[in-house]
């Protein structure tokens, strides 16, 4: 099927290609339990009938207290780096990440906002038009979890109710283990349900094979730390893939619905034109978005 269809833009890096629907972190606090793309979305993607979605950039805003690790989370995903030194974000910053989802190009514009009170009014000016709101807190600091309610309220004030996907993200997972981690996650899952958010625990710090692998001549085995921490930036890539897939699917469905509602219905006009009854074909009457080129 793909071979005779025109490619939509330059290819993206391999680790930004999403072919199967990414899974939730915990079924106890997730936005959708399903494991596949919506049937209509899969069909539209196969036929490349996704309208302008391939050109669309969805806005994601990341909010939360200062020092919780918002910038670190974004930098781990977009640049695969981790900086131990704290440099407060002043106002806002953003990164654009390109994906290919079910064969269709798709981009996220990820807005990193300042957690410091003195920058709050600058940052809040950028909340509008978000398709995804990520509220971040530090798993080792319960105060920051309490504050996520307020951050979310502020972000929602600038957006239409019910129009955004909400995520609650516990950061610095590497600093907690065992019962302490379970306790922190249980509290967060409870709050996520209250907020109608999906919950994820992540670490921007965990290093992968690049830092842990022995010299190039020796046979490299999966480092022991991977067993508990996984690859670099535990859950970071999985989390953003989930964000991208949910936002993408919603965009395609909205686009299909919009196009369906603007299609002429039988009986809409004065006459029902029979096929071949006029020199003007039905195709020439279709809205431009349904054309093949
Ligand atoms: N151990 C550990 N430290 C982290 C992690 N993520 C961030 N940090 C550290 O936490 C500190 C704050 O991180 P930032 O990402 O700058 O925090 P921020 O939320 O962007 O802060 P503001 O920009 O002031 O709102 C830095 O010293 C980071 O190195 C993590 O996953 N694990
Ligand atoms: Mg920051």
Give me some keywords for this one.
293 residues, alpha/beta, 7-stranded mixed sheet, 9 helices, 7 strands, globular, disordered N terminus, disordered C terminus, binds guanosine-5'-triphosphate, binds magnesium ion, Ras-related protein Rab-36 isoform X2
The average pLDDT value, as a whole number, equals 83
Report on the biggest sheet.
7 strands, mixed
Number of helices: 9
Task: Name every ligand kind in the structure.
Answer: guanosine-5'-triphosphate, magnesium ion
Query: Tally of extended strands?
Result: 7
Q: Give the topology string: H per helix, E per strand.
A: EHEHEEHEHHEHEHHH
Shape: globular
The computed structural class is alpha/beta
- End-to-end distance: 17 Å
Helix % is 25-40%
Give unreliable regions as ranges.
1-6, 209-220, 225-229, 267-293
**Radius of gyration based on Cα positions:** 22 Å
Strand content: 15-25%
| Spatial strand order of the main sheet | 1-3-4-2-5-6-7
Protein name: Ras-related protein Rab-36 isoform X2
Task: Indicate the topology.
Blueprint (H helix, E strand, L loop, with lengths): L16 E2 L20 H8 L10 E8 L5 H10 L12 E10 L2 E10 L6 H5 L7 E7 L3 H5 L1 H10 L7 E7 L6 H18 L2 E4 L7 H4 L11 H6 L6 H27 L31
Parallel strand pairs: 1-3, 2-4, 2-5, 5-6, 6-7
Antiparallel strand pairs: 3-4
The site of guanosine-5'-triphosphate has 23 residues, from helix 2.
